[in-house]
Amino acid sequence: MSSIQSWLQRIGLDRYAETFAAEDIDVEVLPELTEADLVELGVSFGDRKKLLRAIATLTGPRVEGIPLRMPPATAPEAADDFGAEQRHLTVMFCDLVGSTELSARYEPEDLRTIVRAYQDACAGVVARLEGYVARYMGDGVLVYFGFPRAHEDDAERAVRAGLEIVEAVGRLRLQDGLKLRTRVGIATGSVIVGDLIGLGAAQEVAAVGESPNLAARLQGLAAPDSVVIDATTHSLAGSAFDCEDLGAQTMKGVMRPVAAWRVLRPRDLDRRAEAMQGDDRVPFVNRTGETTLLLDRWRMASSGHGQIVLLSGEAGIGKSRLLRAFVDRLAGEDFLCHSFHCTPFHRSSTLYPLLERLRRLAGLVADDTPAVALAKLRALFKAVPVDIEETLRLIGPLLSLTPGDAGPPAEEGDLDRLLELLVGAIEALARRRPLLIIVEDLHWIDPTSLELLQRLSLRIGSLPILLALTLRPEAEAQLRHLFPATGLNLSGLQRPESETIIRYLAEQKALPQELVDAIAERTDGVALFIEQLTKAVLESDAVVDRGDHYAFVAEQPALSIPTTLRGSLLARLDRHPGAREVAQLAAVVGREFTFKMLAAISELPEDELHAALKRLVEAELLYQAGLPPKATYRFKHALVQEMAYNSLLKKRRRRLHAAIAAYLKDRNPHLAVVEPELLAHHFTEADLPQPAIAYRLMAGERAMQRSAMAEAAAEIGLGLKLLLRIDDAAERDSLELPLRVAQASALRATKGTGAPETGAAWQRARALCGDDADKSLLFRILYGSFLFHQGNADLK
Prior knowledge:
Blueprint lengths: L1 H9 L6 H6 L12 H6 L4 H15 L15 H6 L4 E12 L2 H7 L2 H21 L3 E6 L2 E6 L8 H18 L10 E16 L6 E5 L1 H12 L4 E5 H7 L3 E9 L8 E9 L2 H10 L9 H15 L4 E6 L6 H11 L6 E6 L10 H11 L7 H12 L6 H8 L7 H4 L7 H19 L2 E6 L6 H12 L6 E7 L1 H7 L6 E4 L5 H11 L7 H11 L3 H12 L4 E3 L4 E3 L10 H12 L2 H13 L2 E3 H7 L4 H13 L3 E4 L6 E4 L2 H9 L3 H18 L3 H4 L1 H10 L3 H17 L3 H14 L6 H23 L4 H14 L3 H17 L7
Parallel strand pairs: 4-6, 9-12, 9-13, 10-11, 11-12
Antiparallel strand pairs: 1-3, 1-4, 2-3, 4-5, 6-8, 7-8, 14-15, 16-18, 17-18
Helix pairs in contact: 7-8, 12-13, 14-15, 18-19, 21-22, 21-23, 24-28, 25-27, 25-28, 29-31, 31-32, 32-33, 32-34, 33-34, 34-35, 34-36, 35-36
């Protein structure tokens, strides 16, 4: 810590030494500080810029990164991709309305104060919602959501930030009674982000792609004090907000008309859940054991022996769907059911899930006066056995009702009194009818709501209450011991159930089996993955609806990650920043890899590499078999591996593939005999076509030796495609000749000697020989050799 103090003193910011010390910020934490962190620490605008510049001089453009043992890149190449990566980003552009008039009306010093207040209002909102202020441009603010850390709901965070910025800027009261207004544009898409451009105060983290420009254009389209979003943002976050469709808009610098929406207001949690359930097309499959357990616990609870079930499973696995199906099974029974939803935006909002439920049940709306709101609450509480006036006095301030409207001012101990009153009300309700309480996403609960649940759990044993709590595995260890609960871990669906969902989404129209297999293989039984990937394929140009079946437009399509999943997949990696780069490196190796191989191509010390892999295993991103250095690992989900792989720039991926290919070739020469297609893959992705072609030919020959002629033809076809990367004509022809001979032999076995494709392959091979006697001899030897291997006695 003394080194931090000295460093702060050297840059003239030693006044923050005590703050850094109080928050345990040492030399290890320092490089990870973001602007959002500094806002939270109370660092002023100018000092934030000084600190970030000083940190950059210590650490370089990026703190995290893995040096690799690979062919050295040239200096420009190394600089081009240092720290940059491809990410799915939501970009927000805020603009101060009427800044030109303000500059004419106020002196520069006064104008500076006004702009600073506007910028700080924006930065405060962005910091709370964990966005990243990339650049201040006078009256404009450029913000990224999804960098440097992704969240599964970055699009929603950006839209919330836009609405809150409009409100926060509107609340500013400056000199002369000046009231500021702003407009916001938001767009989402794939960008290259991470490069530092500019020097000194002009330095910024650049995002290269269409989204930053589109966000700026949408901001220009917005009316004062409004937020306008693009189609991708709307598809990701639209269920959380009421929006007005603005139609297709023509914008300068954008080639095609852009669909745009004006965001009106956030939806309450119940209406949002209803909207999401209304779009639910996925059938409820299997889960028989889980449903049976829930029904068993319900029978016990409804007979007066209260129960708690802790339902754990990763995002998208089907926790909410299971609970909806369970509630449907109880149709016809006499019971009360109340659902509460925790959110990542309100982890510090006291009793937020309960208050949102009360707003919904009482019909409170934003335009209600305090008197109207209190009248609605009184009407609601008449059905609950509580002291109505005391309840209103205690809960009124939490609903932003002033003490004068809700009763006497709050007193010390009121929160404890309120919790006891709420537990008593729940007990009284349960004595009237059995009570089912569902609390979703417990990992995002606020501390006071958690205390309320704990108090209830201590008194639930003799009450007809079933308390069903859902949470994610990473929070289970922290929360499991707080409740005397039955644990229920939800695993992925089995292959038949996955196929049932796929075919259901295709509306029972026939799908090519290879497409069904590909979707099922890549989604690993996660219901959300299955749903989103299937929808993305069916809505793409890769398949065509023939009425009673779907067919490929051309060859089988590559299944890209749907936009709806990119944020959540990247967020899983970004939760473990120290291990993310190891996951990226491993993703290039493949879905399965060994510790030895990873250690050979990474310059991390083995103990650090082991620690990073251990974190990924604990986060359930990897499976592990054995112990290092003999350990073998496998990505739990193919889509997580693909997301890690795609986040790397192509240039870096090529260098990694080259390093892996060199390692495999040098350390395991036997692999060329037993698995030449693996070497061919890495040489292909490394953009080294000559060795890739050679290994594709070897893979084809090996397949023919096993009489797998279809696989042989596929491998040889991949080799022929690689010829397009060879510039030298003579070299290209020499590589093509053995491929054509092998292709003809494979086609002869699958399609027959007289097939046009077979004849064309042999004709092309013969033409490549020309008048060269040596090539003609080679051709005849190869032709005879393949005939011999096929058991053909005619070797003329």
